[in-house]
Amino acid sequence: MENPIFVTGSISKPKSDGPQIIGHICNDLGIWRGQNAREVTRGWPEAERAYNRWFRDRFHNEFGLGAIQFVNVNRTHANQIVRVANMVAERGTRYKAGVRPIRYKVLAGCLARLAQKALRMNASIHLPQIGMNGSNFHWPMVLGIVKDSIDRFRIPVFIYQRPRDTSGQMFARVIDPPRRTRFELTD
Q1: C-alpha to C-alpha distance for 4 and 14, rounded to whole angstroms
Q2: pLDDT tens digits, one per residue of 112-129
Q3: Peptide bond into 4 cis (omega under 30)
Q4: Taking the domain 5-161, which CATH number applies?
Q5: How far apart are the C-alpha atoms of 144 and 104, rounded to whole Å?
Q6: CA–CA separation, 118 and 90 (whole Å)
Q7: Global pTM?
Q8: What sign has the CA pseudo-torsion 77, 46, 38, 149?
Q9: Rounded to an integer, what distance in angstroms lies between the CA atom of residue 43 and that of residue 161?
Q10: Phi, psi angles (nearest 5°) of residue 83
Q11: Which helix (H) or strand (E) element contains residue 6?
């Protein structure tokens, strides 16, 4: 079996049986944003609520760059184990002065710990195609990190790609209206 397995579709609808870990990256500012975060919320809104609590209580927990929060999101099947892994691998949210927000070494460490957890759970790993939503990440580098961090464990990895139009471009569709961040004032 080729690993990773590329799947067209949404990360919110994993395509395997058995225990699953849904992994995605988050920033260290406590701002839940981006296409992948919206997709996770669509499937498991409790993952976003857990991230917000985790950030809010950050002075009393391990929240920070390189931390992972595993959120139990079992809802539909009592015998299906599903966890969402909120991996803090971005410093900030914006590309500034030639520096990308993603920290590749931090991502590698998060993915290695994610793989160890998946091995203990006998779970498959499900990831969005990190960085393919205009966030200036370098996809070939991210794919190499995924392979290097997880392949040695021989764990099935599914990477979810958004649909493409006939010219090969990814559809840029808005799934939900923009979410307010904690910095915005309400009307």
Answers
A1: 14
A2: 999 999 999 999 999 998
A3: yes
A4: 3.40.220.10
A5: 10
A6: 22
A7: 0.80
A8: negative
A9: 16
A10: -125, 145
A11: strand 5-8
Question: Strands 82-90 and 124-128: what pairing?
Answer: unpaired
Query: Looking at this protein, which amino acid is placed at residue 24?
Result: H
pLDDT digits (tens, 9 = 90+) for 71-114: 999 765 556 789 999 999 988 766 665 556 788 899 999 999 99
Q: Taking Cα atoms as reference points, which of 46, 36, 48 lies closest to residue 12?
A: 36
Asked whether 175 and 35 are in contact (CB, 8 A), the reply is: yes
Report the largest interatomic distance among the alpha carbons of the chain, rounded to a whole angstrom. 53
Give me the residue label for tokens 């203990």.
Answer: 120
HSE, CB side, 13 Å, CA atoms: give it for residue 99: 8
Q: How many CB atoms lie within 10 A of CB 49?
A: 13
Tell how strand 20-27 and strand 124-128 pair up: parallel
Give residue 134's Cα distance to chain centre: 15
